[in-house]
From TrEMBL, chains A, B:
<keyword id="KW-0119">Carbohydrate metabolism</keyword>
<dbReference type="Pfam" id="PF01370">
    <property type="entry name" value="Epimerase"/>
</dbReference>
<dbReference type="InterPro" id="IPR001509">
    <property type="entry name" value="Epimerase_deHydtase"/>
</dbReference>
<dbReference type="GO" id="GO:0016491">
    <property type="term" value="F:oxidoreductase activity"/>
</dbReference>
<feature type="domain" description="NAD-dependent epimerase/dehydratase">
    <location>
        <begin position="4"/>
        <end position="208"/>
    </location>
</feature>
<dbReference type="InterPro" id="IPR036291">
    <property type="entry name" value="NAD(P)-bd_dom_sf"/>
</dbReference>
<protein>
    <submittedName>
        <fullName>Putative epimerase/dehydratase</fullName>
    </submittedName>
</protein>
<dbReference type="InterPro" id="IPR050005">
    <property type="entry name" value="DenD"/>
</dbReference>
<keyword id="KW-0521">NADP</keyword>
Amino acid sequence: MHLLIIGAAGMIGRKLAERVAVTGRIGDRAVDTLTLADVVEPEAAQDFAGTRHAVTADLTEPGTAERLIGARPDIVVHLAAIVSGEAEADFDKGYRINLDGTRALFDAIRLTDGYAPRVVYASSLAVFGAPFPDVIADDFHLTPLTSYGTQKVMGELLLDDYSRRGFMDGVGIRFPTICIRPGRPNKAASGFFSGILREPLNGQEAVLPVDEDVRHWHASPRSAVGFIEHAATMDTAALGSRRNVTMPGVSATVGDQIKALRQVAGDATAALIRREPDPTIARIVGGWPRDFDTARARDLGFRAETSFREIIEVYVEDELDGKLPSG
Amino acid sequence: MHLLIIGAAGMIGRKLAERVAVTGRIGDRAVDTLTLADVVEPEAAQDFAGTRHAVTADLTEPGTAERLIGARPDIVVHLAAIVSGEAEADFDKGYRINLDGTRALFDAIRLTDGYAPRVVYASSLAVFGAPFPDVIADDFHLTPLTSYGTQKVMGELLLDDYSRRGFMDGVGIRFPTICIRPGRPNKAASGFFSGILREPLNGQEAVLPVDEDVRHWHASPRSAVGFIEHAATMDTAALGSRRNVTMPGVSATVGDQIKALRQVAGDATAALIRREPDPTIARIVGGWPRDFDTARARDLGFRAETSFREIIEVYVEDELDGKLPSG
């Protein structure tokens, strides 16, 4: 079976590729050919036992989608996108990459005769826009408040329509905020959700710019890879005509996060969090969703952590070789 | 003030243009220049007292949107679309006209410096897809089951995003099924909703292909014009970030329709309806929405008929010069 991952140089794409390399499978399906594509050459999964292709490809360039689809991969995982901040800063680039790039991919698939692969599409909580109910139901309307969110909904709609027409067999997954993101601190407004845990777990100080009662929706990178694996191999009949699904996660306040950090790593580690209120970040984050009813996703077999403590333990296992900071 | 109507040769476009010609206004704003555009030359409003332009224009041809927007009309009413059946039959044409045409128009507006006109966008109940609750709330999610519905939602999303960015001041209106449509019978699955009233009111037999308990959502052509006039001139601050609104209407069963016809025009007229069940039409119509909670639209000042009797009376006044069939 041939698996194509587009956006394979990103954090989730790399983790997915590494897992496929280790297991030789995605979900319950054996992978013999793995094609990794991104705008920069993907480095992951060098030790994959099957045939591995690394492709530098920009979906917005004419012919690129057709070239990627030419080998008729059985499963296409489409993670390529520019992020929220960049799509907001550069209007044309956001629509070109997130909308036109996705449509180019879907059309290349549509126009390949006798071909209808499983397509896993990475969507986002940004498809939702405030004001929200406290718990957002699966049938809540999609009213994004960013260009990124708008582009992601448009991709969801194409996925539904192209699947209904039989051009592909799509599953759209709306990722929670991924926590704890490995790597270095970044400037994203959401960065502190990971930073206040990651930096202390690495023995470093972290800044908390919002109040402890700020609530948000989280899942680990390991869960994110699991969502993709399940979406790539599940029986899509259960989805009916609504192929985009809000993924399960943990609704937690910042206070819950800190409490879990203290439980896992002790008071001294939690004491590395320094309060430094930032009204701008507080205002941005104040408009974000806090909690979801994801009964549908769970009924469909998607699984995430069930406590924030578990999210932290996943990070310690996957990124710190199980080692907690001393002291 | 300059009003541009795109899709001015269609039924609603013609009625809107005629009304502007008669009143010299749209809503409470005086119109001195009226530009009518369509893929065939618009014939309406020949007697408009101001400056009238009739333009043959296809939004999907390069440069057309720029040409229409070049004169910087203050209000742009965008009614141009291919209908549901055609968008389903011709995939490429549907996306080209309904999505790319709309985007070309919106981008021509966006790229005109210092210009942010009121844009009224015709959307549709087709943005919703079964299964539905009995009454569809304003925050029900958008899960279209046709390519037409998909394209209409994508236009709604662009309208929201382009308005949020300040490129335009958009209002999207989701029309009910328009009843009683004037003119000749057509082959649309929805055609009988008008036909079982229009043909008897014109002394002719009509065919009813579904059961009398089929329920649907209706408003008159006069209300449709009123929706556009209100959307063109309302204070959009009240819309907040959610600029697409399900219009008010009358939820009525076919039985309610026939009862109202009997009340207005007598038993002999209603007896011209011949039952001829068509399982295909019954199945299609069975997937359509039945009722909406449109408190939001009414709070925003949109008005429709409140009974089916009123919808019939509007037809008799506007299309039959107030004359009922004899007998």
